[in-house]
Design brief:
Elements lengths: L35 E2 L5 E2 L9 H27 L4 H23 L4 H6 L1 H23 L4 H8 L2 H13 L5 H18 L9 H21 L8 H21 L11 E4 L2 E4 L1 H26 L1 H8 L1 H14 L5 H22 L2 E3 L5 E3 L3
Helix pairs in contact: 1-10, 1-12, 2-4, 2-9, 2-10, 4-8, 4-9, 5-8, 5-12, 6-8, 7-13, 10-11
Length: 365
């Protein structure tokens, strides 16, 4: 939650879907990595984590991406059965917050002052990355396929580059510009602009809204202290999101309509609580925990690249569960979007070399 100033482009993960962001420094993957800080702020040495078990770390990262990717496929049957997006998101966030409550309290023992000191950032994180991003994403999948909605949300890194350019006068380098070009071209293919397909404007706007919330999620997460454990940030953000969503629902600001008691999941008819448990326990609680574990074993840089597989898992689950598959042109566009994001992340991950005058300078493309 998904993910920073100097402000590098954050590690990816969709808090529709994203794991809790972590603070730098970024750890390399391999025995040659230097000791550094992990996601939880504890020391890590080359003898630990990925240095000893790189395949285990990779497996955990893939499990996290796959878990986050179940969200759209299992939430859409509820939406089609008349459940309001607000009701689905509220149940998901509330159950996940309850599940992570004990680990959050344990991680904060002796550090409650750190949580209070970062109160505003944590509240903003809960409002945008937890509540806002998922609400926008679930609204998007009521109008678009799961894969297309997720691809729109994954434009967040491109938006972050634009923000850094405008706000901090950090002009993107050639590799970053190439990545942006790929992502924009991929977006045009996903939306099938040249093919004359009917464009669901509401779905596209909700998808882009999810991307904007994901940007805010990353930028706010960057402003918390390094000694605030990622588990605490994730758990506290879920609590904030749940409280805000319930307040909006009970006051009538957000539609909390409950639909049919039975929903169609693939070829089966199941009770409504079956998909709810999946998106709360698997796509939220389990996904956050495994995402944090993956970052500790692989380092933020490698884990962020592996997290891009969420798009592919989401398309796979939508196909298996819903029989829903984007067209070949949209799949090609998705590949370009992911390729563009990878290019941007690769550019940001390059080492900083000292300039002649002693000022830091990036290596050029």
């Amino acid at each position: 939650m998904h993910t920073e100033p100097t402000v590098p482009t954050p590690a990816l993960a969709s808090p529709s879907s994203a794991p809790a962001p972590v603070d730098p420094p970024v750890l390399e993957w391999g025995p040659e990595a230097d000791a550094g800080s992990t996601a939880g702020g504890t020391a890590s040495s080359p003898a630990s984590g990925a240095a000893r078990h790189p395949l285990l770390g990779l497996g955990v990262a893939l499990a996290s991406a796959a878990a986050f990717a179940t969200s759209g496929a299992f939430a859409k049957p509820l939406l089609l059965a008349g459940w309001a997006p607000g009701a689905v998101v509220t149940m998901r966030i509330t159950l996940a917050a309850v599940v992570l409550l004990v680990p959050t309290v344990i991680s904060l023992r002796g550090r409650w002052g750190v949580l209070r000191r970062n109160g505003r950032a944590v509240v903003g994180y809960g409002l945008t990355g937890v509540a806002g991003c998922q609400l926008a994403y679930f609204n998007a999948v009521t109008h678009l396929s799961v894969g297309v909605a997720l691809l729109l949300e994954y434009l967040a890194p491109v938006l972050i580059v634009g923000w850094l350019w405008v706000r901090h006068r950090r002009a993107p380098r050639r590799l970053t510009l190439a990545g942006i070009g790929l992502a924009v071209l991929g977006l045009l293919l996903v939306l099938d602009v040249a093919g004359g397909a009917r464009l669901d404007v509401a779905g596209v706007l909700w998808g882009l809204g999810a991307a904007v919330c994901l940007v805010l999620y990353f930028l706010l997460a960057d402003h918390v202290d390094a000694d605030l454990p990622p588990m605490a940030l994730a758990g506290a953000g879920l609590v904030v999101g749940a409280v805000v969503l319930w307040a909006a629902g009970l006051t009538g600001v957000m539609d909390m309509t409950r639909g049919s008691e039975a929903v169609t999941l693939g070829d089966a008819v199941v009770p409504w609580w079956v998909p709810v448990l999946v998106i709360a326990l698997v796509a939220a609680a389990f996904a956050y925990v495994t995402g944090i574990a993956a970052v500790r074993m692989l380092g933020a840089k490698v884990a962020s690249f592996v997290a891009l597989t969420e798009v592919l898992f989401a398309v796979l689950f939508a196909w298996v569960v819903l029989g829903e598959l984007p067209t070949a042109l949209q799949l090609a566009g998705g590949v370009l979007i992911v390729g563009g994001v990878v290019a941007v992340r690769a550019d940001e991950a390059r080492p900083v070399l000292p300039a002649a005058d002693g000022a830091p300078e990036r290596t050029d493309a």
